[in-house]
């Protein structure tokens, strides 16, 4: 079984100004002459983590991580202005040009798969390959599953905690009820909502409960950016047209790709990965039998590290 590579530290960090008021944090690790791979983190609003560097052989890969607008080490924190999918796609292309990269591999999980697919469809000639974990097409069906009715039936106890910041009379539209609190002027209500939102996601992220994941998601700094930015994107349907990704798959059908998805993923049910696979049969599809959503689960790690290994030997 493949495991994560040892800890590594960046060899360079960049600060890249984009549309005001945003400045992006970027780091590079591994081999400066290696195969370029860019990590597209989830959320949106979660930010990159040190373990994201460790899916790739540092002798073979030039590993690029960046925090998307409003989260992680990018500034200003939790900012919603000029923060849309189209802005993020433009940022990825700016980073590619800034780093003087001709083509690169896209490595994304959850929301990162949404972003990877939209970017690839906009700039197919710049994509050498794609490794996608826990497919999320950002459809209304997927959003309502997790934030209105669906996942709640698997975790009724956790769902009760998620509902606590929202009065009974507002629960027919939980997403917008949260949005009002996460963008309101009441700082205590905003933080309370952010913690409840992020804790719901942390508790449901893995097949076997993981206290470290829950604690990570509950950190106030991370919780606020993830809750505010996720909610901002989801009330706006990801700033995408209905079925936009599926309708544009012919643009990227030639790109080598691997899809990795946990069988018991409750945050992003495997249905979306299956639909994408049927539309994109050229992509390798790996269903991980003993996993949920989290990239830190052993079966998911094994599949992702193996895929990165295979790409490093097969893609010139």
Please give the structural blueprint.
Layout: E1 12-17, E2 23-30, E3 35-40, E4 61-67, H1 85-98, E5 104-110, H2 111-122, E6 127-135, H3 140-147, H4 156-163, H5 174-182, H6 187-203, H7 211-218, H8 220-235, H9 244-247, E7 257-262, H10 270-279, E8 284-288, H11 298-314
Parallel strand pairs: 3-4, 3-5, 5-6, 6-7, 7-8
Antiparallel strand pairs: 1-2, 2-4
Outline:
With 316 residues, the chain is an alpha/beta fold. The protein folds into two domains: 12-137 and 239-314, Rossmann fold (3-Layer(aba) Sandwich); 142-238, no CATH class. It contains eleven helices and eight strands.
Structure notes:
The protein has two domains: 12-137 and 239-314, Rossmann fold (3-Layer(aba) Sandwich), CATH 3.40.50.1820; 142-238, no CATH class. With 316 residues, it is of the alpha/beta class. The protein has helices at residues 85-98, 111-122, 140-147, 156-163, 174-182, 187-203, 211-218, 220-235, 244-247, 270-279, 298-314; strands at 12-17, 23-30, 35-40, 61-67, 104-110, 127-135, 257-262, 284-288. The mean pLDDT is 96. Strands 1-2-4-3-5-6-7-8 form an eight-stranded mixed sheet, with helices on both faces. Strand 1 (12-17) and strand 2 (23-30) form a beta hairpin.
